[in-house]
Every structure is written in C-alpha cells, then in structure tokens.
Write a structure and sequence with these properties.
heterodimer; A: mainly alpha; MetI-like fold; 11 helices; 83% helix; B: mainly alpha; 0% strand
Chain lengths: 260, 220
C-alpha cells in the first residue's frame, strides 16, 4: 500500500474505515451488552464434571442417534437408487409417481411427517408402530426422496458423450452402467451425499419430540433429573458440533481424494 | 374409523390463525435474521483476520448444531445464565433468527462473490467509492443470484418453525397436535396441516427452481 501515491493511500484507509469499523463497532457493542447481562457469579458455580456421572446415558443416546441415522440413510439410499432407476427406465406414469413421491417428502416438515406416520397412519392401516419404528420410517421415507434426487442428479450429470462412447465401443447395458456411468456418477454424488447424511443426523433430534430416547431426549431427561440443564445441554450441543465438524472434514477429505 | 371432513370445517378458523402465526413468526425471524446475517457477512468478508475467523466459527456452529438443541438451549439455559428474560415467543423468534442469520450470511456472501471481479474493478476505475460500487454495481447483480437460494432457505425456515411447537408456541404444528390429541382426529388434522405446509413450501420451491433455470438460460 505504501507504493500508492498519498491521496490513494488516504482513500484506501477511508475505505477500510467505512467497510470494517461499522461491523466491528456493532460487534463490540453486542459483546458488551451480553457481557454486562451475563451472571458471571452463576457461571463460576457451574459443575461440568457432573456430566461424567451421566456419561453412560449420553453414550446410549448417541448410540441410538447414530443407529437411527445409519439405518434410515442405508434404507433410504437403497430406496433412492430404486426410485432413480424407476425414473430413468420407467414410462410416464412411473415417472410422475416418482416425482410425486420426492416432492411430497421434500416439501413437508419432518415433524409433521413423523406425527402423521405415528398417529395418523395407524388409523388407516390398523397397524400401530412403536415410536422408534415410526420415527425411523419417517426419516427413511424422507431420505429416500432426497437421495433419489441426489442419485438422479449424479447420473444426469454424466455427459451424454459418455453414453455415446460406450455405445460405439459396443458395450452392453450392464457394462455401460457398471464400468462407464456409475464410476463417474458416484464421484459426483459423494459431496451431496455427505451433506444429506449430516442433515439427517441433525434431523434425528426431531424424533425426541415423539419420545425416542436419542441423544437430545436423553439430554432433556438427564437435565431434569440432575437439575443441571446448562451443563447437560451445552455438552449435548458440543457433541453434535464435534460430530458435525468430523462430517464436514470427512466430506472435504473425500472430495479432495476423488478429485485427484 | 371413517374420515370425518365436517369435523375439519369447525376448526378451519383455528387452523388458519395458527397457519398465519407460523408465517408471521417466520417473517419476523427472517427480518431479524437478515440484519444479523448482513452483519455476519460483513465480518466474514472483512480484511481483519480476527473478525473473519470469529464469524466463520459462528456461522459454522450455528449451521451444524441441530435446531432443536439450539431452541432448547436458549429456552432453558439462557434465562439461567443471563439477566435477559425472554418470553417463549421471543425465544422462539430469537432461535429462528440466529439460524436464519447463519444461512443468510452464507447466501449473501455467495451472491456477492458470484459477481465477476471485473465489475467492482470497473466501478473503482470509474471513480465510484466502495459503498457506491456495492450499491450500484454489486448489489443489483448479487440480488438476482440470491433469489433462489433465499427462497430455498425460506422453505427450510418454515420447516424448522414446526420445531417451535416444543416451546408450546401457538403455531400450526403445535395447534394441530393439541387439536388432534383433544379430538383423536389425527388423520384428518395432520393430513390437512401437512397439505398446508406442502402447498406453501412447494410453491416457494417451484418458484425458486424456475427462477434458477431462467438465470441459467440467461447465462448460457
């Protein structure tokens, strides 16, 4: 900046002031407002080691959360692949059915889906499901819609010329899919797949509303039992943050690995 | 069990009011969240390293913490740790605003970064100030690119607003669950409510998709 003539340097400094100082001032004011209003003496009495006493329960909650996420994503992926294949190979009616399925599950809130499956569906079918089954079913159906879209998008993103090339080499349908299309499509699917997986991991907290004892529900039970809501909820939040961090790191690593 | 549609007619008014309050809560959260998001975006694009780092940590944490955990934390822990005493409605709007701030900051940033570098350079070359360049050259182009991600986020926000039923706020999901458990008409009520959410969210996402497609056609 010192190479610039003097008026330019002044102008550059003025720009810096206009662009940086305003947000900085607002942030400092916010921090001051919060700092004045925090009960520091109360924070000094917080007892975080109490969390260890409930570590086993939190582990069970985390285990349930991860289990539900994994099962619903795995089943959803299988259903999503089947839906994507049906969309590609089926006729007009099949296509519109697949579209109706994906739009229906993508455009309604997960909570309403969970409540509908748990409370409304049994009056139609006569079979009542446990909260765990209803919750996992709702997550699976929503996952199937999102993942069908991911799989469809990945296949559609493989250039047309690849199909033509495979065809002109005389490859049959099966080798074309297995050796030409899918290896490229899967590469394109990985980043959205990681994102979707993480949002379902986050979404599994919603099952606590119907009473599934996953991490969030365990947290609220323990916080009532121990009268230590701050320690418990903060720890639960941190567990989700750490796993979120691992997810985003993993996603970036896989992306880097695939691009090489 | 037979489906009773007459029953719905008696509760249309309650459900309509609840639906409108859901939309009002989302609108309030969107306005506050946009202001906070603009601030976060300013920080994220700032040349001061510390501001940049802090805002990226704030944005990432708000985006990766489950919404329900944030809502419960603000509801049960904030009044204990601070002297702020918020009603549950205020807590609900605050938590949605914080979530909106994080997502909108990223949408704003992507929109601004999406404008070609040559554009602000041309602005500076014409002697416009930084603010004028932002207002006259970057903002109109960035706004066009932000429309569809913004509408998509609005869909997500409406979905997230159902979680406020955990605070017993009188929004649609809560009213529906109260009405359903009082009358045992789960099928009718949840179907109607689901249809309401579907109509709103589907309309928004369809507009977003068609706008995105049009933008792509203009570009190519």
């Amino acid at each position: 900046m010192s190479a610039l003539p003097l008026p330019d340097r002044i102008r550059a400094r003025r720009r810096l002031i206009a662009g940086e100082v305003l947000p900085l001032a607002v942030i400092l004011a916010l921090i001051a407002l919060i700092a004045v209003n925090v009960k520091w003496s109360f924070i000094a009495t917080l007892d975080f080691p109490v969390v260890w006493r409930y570590a086993a329960a939190l582990w069970r909650g985390l285990y349930t959360t991860l289990g539900i996420t994994f099962v619903s994503l795995a089943l959803g992926l299988v259903a999503g692949i089947l839906l994507a294949i049906a969309y590609r190979t089926g006729g007009r009616a099949v296509r519109s059915l697949v579209i109706a399925h994906t739009e229906l599950w993508r455009n309604t809130p997960l909570l309403i889906q969970v409540l509908w499956i748990h409370f409304a569906l049994p009056t139609l079918t006569g079979v009542s499901t446990s909260i765990l089954v209803s919750g996992t079913l709702a997550l699976t159906l929503q996952a199937s819609a999102y993942l069908a879209e991911v799989v469809r998008g990945g296949i559609a993103a493989v250039p047309r010329s690849q199909w033509d090339a495979a065809h002109s080499l005389g490859l049959g349908t099966f080798p074309t899919w297995m050796r030409v299309i899918l290896p490229q499509a899967i590469k394109l699917m990985i980043p959205p797949l990681v994102n979707t997986s993480f949002s379902f991991f986050k979404g599994s907290t919603i099952l606590s509303i119907i009473g599934v004892s996953e991490l969030m529900k365990m947290g609220s039970i323990i916080s009532v039992h121990s009268h230590k809501p701050i320690e418990i909820f903060t720890t639960v939040g941190l567990i989700y943050l750490i796993i979120g961090f691992i997810f985003s790191r993993l996603g970036r690593l896989v992306e880097k690995y695939l691009s090489n | 069990m037979e489906i009773n549609l007459y029953f719905i007619r008696d509760h249309v008014a309650t459900l309509t009011i609840a639906g409108l309050s859901t939309l009002a809560i989302c609108a309030a959260a969107l306005v506050i969240g946009a202001a906070m998001g603009a601030l976060l975006c300013c920080m994220r694009m700032s040349r001061i390293g510390a501001l940049n780092k802090v805002s990226s940590i704030v944005i990432d944490s708000l985006r990766s913490i489950p919404e329900l955990v944030l809502i419960f934390w603000l509801y049960s822990c904030l009044p204990l740790v601070t002297y702020f005493s918020l009603t549950s409605l205020q807590t609900g709007i605050l938590s949605l605003s914080l979530i909106a701030a994080a997502y909108l900051a990223e949408i704003f940033r992507a929109g601004i970064n999406g404008v070609h570098v040559g554009q602000p350079e041309a602005g500076f070359a014409l002697g416009l100030t930084r603010f004028q360049t932002l207002r006259l050259i970057i903002a109109p182009q960035a706004a066009r690119m932000m429309i569809s991600p913004f509408l998509n986020f609005l869909c997500d926000l409406i979905k997230i607003s159902t979680l406020l039923s955990a605070l017993s706020l009188p929004e649609l999901a809560y009213k529906a669950s109260v009405l359903a458990s009082n009358t045992y008409r789960y099928l009718e009520i949840y179907t109607i409510v689901g249809a309401f959410y579907f109509l709103v969210i589907f309309t928004l996402s369809t507009i977003a998709r068609s706008y995105e497609r049009r933008l792509l056609e203009i570009k190519t």
